[in-house]
Design brief:
This protein has 401 residues and is an alpha/beta fold. It has a domain of 223 residues: Rossmann fold (3-Layer(aba) Sandwich), CATH 3.40.50. 38% of the residues lie in helices and 20% in strands. A 5-stranded parallel beta sheet has the order 4-3-5-6-7. It has a 4-stranded mixed beta sheet with strand order 2-1-11-10. Strand 8 and strand 9 form a beta hairpin. Helix 2 packs across helix 3, helix 6 crosses helix 7 and helix 10 packs across helix 11.
Length: 401
């Protein structure tokens, strides 16, 4: 029996259904597919690359990226070697957020290994003057003239010889920390959540069982894996059920890409569903018009048992409306974290989308690391350790794997 960890589950899917499509990523308007066997080969190459660059058991790989396959795979490669993945919220649409909170976290945590999405994130890291050992970047545009020796293009893995799967099995254990999440609290101190392989898979199995998820599902990874709920309820079920995981071209095209796909599984936050509700409301006909009365009449049929009236309403209004927000085929709409306001919940229910709340149950733990004092620390497998005299004040948390 294989050890119950994320990398081992990906290996299992690659051997169990090698020719099935594992994920798709839209680039320049075209959906590119990868099978489980191809994904496994790429994973083994990434493991070798990280190993060559000095990544080892207990190290942490920080992610500065919106949703994309490379960020997902390199996280699992870090897990293979007994490491941890630490996604940071890449809210670069808000320059103030990027400049203050993300930069402050990076300076406080002093990461040695970083995955950066593009030139924007690479520049942010380099401008902070961190003592990083490696920056792996996904998008090569604008970076060809950079001379920093720590930079390494993700695309170069095609020239990397993969590890021998049978001779170098994953060293990850179920109790090892798989993901750690950071934020700054109101006092400017660093808080964190940690999530083990065992916790992720236990909650993922619960979801798979209750919602009868299978390999025929389609899911859209439209949010960064910077919140533990999305790792629990999207990444974990993907590896357990073996369905297709789709990545939008970018964060701005997520609604268009969702409409194209019509995913059967949607995992969003309260803000996600409220944004879609607001989008629909902004496009509604004016009050007291014929079209608005037709809309109101159609929505009211949701409380009626099957009838000709309800069938007509579905095809005239409800079905096109679900198409507009990309929920035409959605059967498992998940809400991660905070509950929906009653008005939004009622709207979705009226078009046959009964949003199911799955709480983000991990508790935030506190440190006395203040982002303003820039302590030099390292995050170990389950321990935050002091690296300089300021860090002597830290409380050791958890146990080393």
């Amino acid at each position: 029996m294989i050890t119950d960890t994320l990398p081992n589950l990906l290996s299992f899917q690659a051997f169990d259904k090698p020719l099935n499509i594992a994920l798709r990523h839209k680039q320049l308007g075209i959906w590119h597919e990868k099978r489980w066997s191809e994904l496994h080969q790429e994973l083994l190459q990434l493991v070798q690359l990280l190993k060559e660059k000095g990544f080892k058991e207990g190290d942490t790989l920080f992610l500065l990226s919106h949703p994309r396959p490379e960020a997902l795979l390199i996280s699992i490669a870090a897990h293979w070697l007994g490491g941890i993945s630490a996604p940071l919220n890449p809210s670069y649409q808000d320059p103030a957020y990027a400049e203050t909170k993300v930069s402050a976290l990076l300076k406080a945590l002093q990461p040695a290994f970083i995955f950066a999405e593009s030139q924007l994130q690479v520049d942010q890291v380099l401008n902070l003057g961190l003592s990083q050992k490696l920056i792996i970047y996904a998008d090569v545009r604008g970076l060809s003239h950079y001379k920093d020796e720590t930079l390494h293009a993700y695309a170069s893995i095609k020239n990397t010889q993969p590890i021998d799967y049978l001779k170098q099995l994953s060293v990850a254990e179920p109790e090892h920390t798989a993901f750690v999440f950071y934020r700054l609290n109101e006092n400017g101190n660093v808080d964190f959540q940690k999530l083990s392989h065992a916790e992720m898979l236990a909650q993922g199995r619960k979801l798979v069982k209750l919602e009868a998820l299978n390999e025929r599902e389609e899911a859209l990874a439209a949010r960064a894996f910077a919140a533990s709920g999305h790792v629990r309820y999207l990444l974990s079920p993907w590896l357990l059920a073996g369905f297709k995981l789709n990545f939008p071209e970018n964060i701005d095209t997520r609604d268009i890409d969702r409409r194209e796909l019509g995913p059967t599984l949607v995992a969003g936050t309260s803000a996600t569903y409220q944004r879609l509700h607001a989008l629909v409301e902004s496009r509604l006909p004016l009050a007291n018009t014929l079209h608005r009365r037709l809309f109101d009449w159609s929505i009211s049929t949701s409380k009626i048992d099957f009838s000709l009236r309800r069938l007509v309403a579905y095809w005239l209004v409800v079905r096109p409306l679900r198409d507009v927000i990309g929920f035409s085929r959605t059967r498992v709409p998940l809400l991660v974290g905070e509950r929906l306001p009653a008005k939004s919940a009622l709207f979705f229910a009226s078009i046959g989308i009964h949003v199911k709340n799955w709480p983000d149950i991990a508790e935030w733990q506190h440190t006395n690391i203040n982002a303003n004092i820039n302590p030099n620390i390292k995050v170990d497998t389950q321990v935050i350790k002091a690296q300089n005299r300021l860090a002597q004040q830290l409380t050791q948390v958890g146990a080393s794997a």
